[in-house]
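I have been asked to look over a protein record a colleague put together. The record follows directly below this note.
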Amino acid sequence: MKTNILYTITVLLLISSGNVLLAQKRTLALTDALEMAKQGNKALQVQLLEEIQAKEMVRETKSGLLPSISANAAYSYYFERPIIFLPGSFAGTDKPVQDVAFGGRNVFNTFVSLHQPILAPAIHERTKASQISEKIEIAKTADLQSRVALQVSTRYLDMLMMNRQLGLLDQSLQRNVKVLQDSRSLFAQGRNLKSDTLRSFIAVENLKSSVSYLKNSIDVSGIELKRLIGLDGSTEIELTDELEPGAETSQSEFHKVDEAFQIAEKNRNDLNVQKLTIDLQQKKIKASQAELLPELSLIGQYQLQAQADDMKFGQYVLPRTSFLGLQLSVPVFNGNRTKSQISKAKIKAQQEDIRLNDLKDKVKTELATTISKWKEATSQLDIQKATVKSAELNYQMMEDRFRNSLGSRLELTDAELALTQAKINYLNAVYNLRMLHIELQHALGLLNL
C-alpha cells in the first residue's frame, strides 16, 4: 500500500514538474526579441537614467535665472557685552579712542533675502550648453538602441544558423549510423573490409562530436540572447523565424557608397552625437567668454532684530530694516583663469571636429566594405543553390548505383558527405546574406528597436 502511495506521489510530482517546464518554454520571433530588448536590456535602462539625469541638469542650470529667496534666523548669547570703539569725545572721555560696551546679552536676528539675476550672460550660455547635453544623451540612447538591435539580431541569426546546421548534421548522422550498421553486417559476412567499417565508425563519432559542440554553442548563444533582451535565464526559448532571407534581403537597394553615406549621415545617431558634441564645445566657449561680462541682479532684504538681557519676549522691541536695490558685478581680473578656460574649450572643439571627420571616414569605409560583401554574398547564394541541386542529384545517382550493385559504399559515403557539405555551405551563404543585410541597415542608421 505504501509503495503504491509513493509511486502515485512520484508520478504526480513528475507531471507537475513537466508542466512547470512547459510553462517556462517561450516561442520567440526576432521582432519579439527586439521589443523585449527595448524594455529589458540593462544597458538601455542605465542610458535612460542618463537621459533623466541630463534633464535634471537642465533644470538645475535654469534655476540660476530664477529668483533666490532665503530665510534666516539666529540667536546669540554674549557672556561679555559686545565692544565698539568710538572717539573719546563721543563717549565723554579725554581718550582719543574709547571702547564702549553696548547691546544686550540675548541677541535675536531674523531676515528674508532676495536675489534675482537680471543680466546673467554666463548662466544663459550654461543653460544652452546643458540643453545640448540633454540632446546628446537622447541621441546616445538611440545609438545604443541601434547597437543593441544589432547584437540581438546577430545572436538570433547565430542560433537560427546553428539550429539548421544541427538539423543537417542529425540527418547526416542518421545516414552514417545506417552505413555503419550495414558495414558491420557486411564485415560479419566477410563481404566488407575492416578498414571500411573503421572509417564509418570514425565518421559517426566525428558527427557526434560536431552535434554535441553545436548543441553547447546553441545553449551559450541562448544564454547571451536572454541576457540581451532581459529574459529570465531559466526560461527556455524556441525560435520561430526562418533563416532564409525574405523579400527585404533579396534586393540589393544600395550599390553606391555616396548614396548610402547620404542616408547614413541623416540617420546614424553616432554621427548626430558627434555633431552635437561639437555644438556643446562651442557653447562652452561662449559660456567661458560670458564669464568676462558684467552681471546685474536685483537684491532685497527684510530684517527683524532684538537685543535684551532677559527672556521677556512680550516686552521686546523689534526694529525692522528693509531695502531693495540693484547689484552690478564686473569681473576685473581672476589670474587669467577664464582666458585659460576659453583656450581649453577651443582646443576641445578642434579635437571634436577632427573626431567627426574621422568618424565620417570610418562610416564610408564601413559602407563600402558592407556593400561589396553584400554583392559577393548575393552571387555566392546563387552559386550554392546550384551546388546543392547538383549534390542532391549526385547523391541520388550514387544511391541508385549502390542499390543496383554498380557502385561502392565508399562512393555513396563520399556523395553523402558532399551533399551535407553543400547544404552547410548554402546555409552559410544564407546566413552571410542575412547578417550583411542587418549590418547594412545598422551602417545606414535604419536598424532600431
User: Anything to note?
Assistant: Residues 121-188 form the longest helix (68 residues).
